[in-house]
UniProtKB/TrEMBL annotation:
Residues 15-49 are annotated as: Disordered. It holds the Pfam family DUF2961. It comes from the Bacteria. InterPro entries: DUF2961. The lineage of its organism: Bacteria, Bacillati, Actinomycetota, Actinomycetes, Micromonosporales. It comes from Actinocatenispora rupis. This is DUF2961 domain-containing protein.
Length: 356
């Protein structure tokens, strides 16, 4: 059925075909769901047999990589749902490879991809990412590809991980102007004194930047968010084209996220938020930790030849002077570009990812 002329949005009828990959249908083939006779739910379903939740999840051994889904295109992933124990949120690495590229375009710790870099639950109610009780991860980033998609999870932990997931996608032609989703993760722990944290590096060619998530651990007393985010576009060198006015300003907040009488105040909106504030307990948790996102969906940052993004870490010292900070900053940058190949980011090792 062809689209109705002049009709757009959810009411438009198209020739697309909906498919879904999960442990209950690992290939996404039509009429192939719920056929498993073995799986993680087989014992619970032993009195009921096939079709009764025999294979709701997978177990990923320590040090192993599991293939969540391999899909032939052209198609677009519309929704990714996943859950696992929170101990695995920083020890599982999500990768997505488009059109058989040599390097994955998405290579990010699982929790950070879903705005949950600290291994603690916090409600996220944004347009492309939702995190619901208790650890239900949802991503609605549009992920088109033309020939193939391969999604994997690598388990860097010393223990096996049980993972429940579902990949919902649509088989349909992909427009010539559609870009491939990319995600790069980087961590500075600690950020060297008077240096800036690199949120995104190494990107060349045309595309547009669509999102930032920061997991920020404060290593000093006082306010920590005076630093500016800077977008170096195309031929920018020392000075950027886009320069913000402060960290909390970039994420849509103001005045230190500090509401009089209640202090740091979490919020989650469709395109920006500070959903997580972890306060010290005075004993074992000696540092404040924050999680914040901004999605450039209504306001994508477009570039023609390249993009580099940084953030400063600044507090205050005596005399009303800025204090360069040496904080623990982990960033996830998301963008679309014409090349399906990935741009390597920070080291994705167990020690580098560990929350400590």
């Amino acid at each position: 059925m062809h689209a109705i002329e002049g009709t757009f949005g959810i009411s438009a009828l198209t020739a697309g075909r909906s498919r879904s990959i999960s442990p209950e249908n690992p290939t996404g083939a039509p009429g192939n769901g719920g056929r498993a006779t073995e799986g993680t739910g087989a014992r619970a379903a032993r009195d009921l047999g096939p079709g009764w939740k025999v294979s709701p999840s997978i177990d990923i051994p320590a040090g192993a990589t599991a293939v969540l889904g391999e899909i032939e295109g052209p198609a677009t992933i519309r929704h990714l749902w996943l859950t696992t124990h929170r101990d695995n949120w920083r020890s599982l690495v999500l990768r997505a490879t488009w059109d058989d590229a040599d390097t994955p375009a998405v290579a990010v710790p699982l929790g950070d991809f879903f705005c949950s870099g600290w291994g603690r639950f916090a409600q996220v109610s944004s347009a492309p990412v939702a995190v619901n009780p208790n650890g239900g991860f949802n991503a609605y980033w549009e992920m088109p590809f033309r020939r193939s998609a391969r999604l994997t999870l690598e388990n860097l932990a010393a223990e096996p991980a049980t993972v429940y997931f579902q990949i919902d996608y649509e088989l349909a032609p992909v427009a010539d102007h559609a870009g491939y989703l990319h995600a790069q993760w980087r961590r500075s722990n600690p950020l060297p004194y008077k240096e800036v944290h690199p949120i995104l590096t190494g990107v060349t060619g045309a595309g547009h930047y669509v999102g930032t998530y920061l997991a920020w651990g404060v290593n000093s007393t006082g306010w920590w968010g005076e630093g500016e985010l800077k977008f170096h576009l195309d031929d920018d060198e020392e000075f950027p084209t886009i320069c913000g006015t402060g960290t909390e300003d970039y994420f849509g907040g103001a005045w230190n996220f500090d509401v009089p009488g209640q202090g740091y105040t979490p919020y989650s909106t469709p395109y920006l938020g500070l959903p997580q504030v972890i306060r010290p307990d005075g004993l074992y948790e000696s540092q404040q930790r924050f999680g914040m996102y901004r999605w450039h969906i209504p306001d994508p940052i477009r570039f023609e030849r390249g993009c580099r993004v940084t953030v400063q870490a600044l507090g205050w010292r005596s005399g009303g002077r800025y204090l360069p900070l040496t904080d623990d900053i982990a960033s996830t940058a998301l963008w679309y570009q014409a090349d399906p190949g990935g741009v390597p980011g920070g080291a994705l090792t167990a020690d580098e990812l560990e929350v400590c």
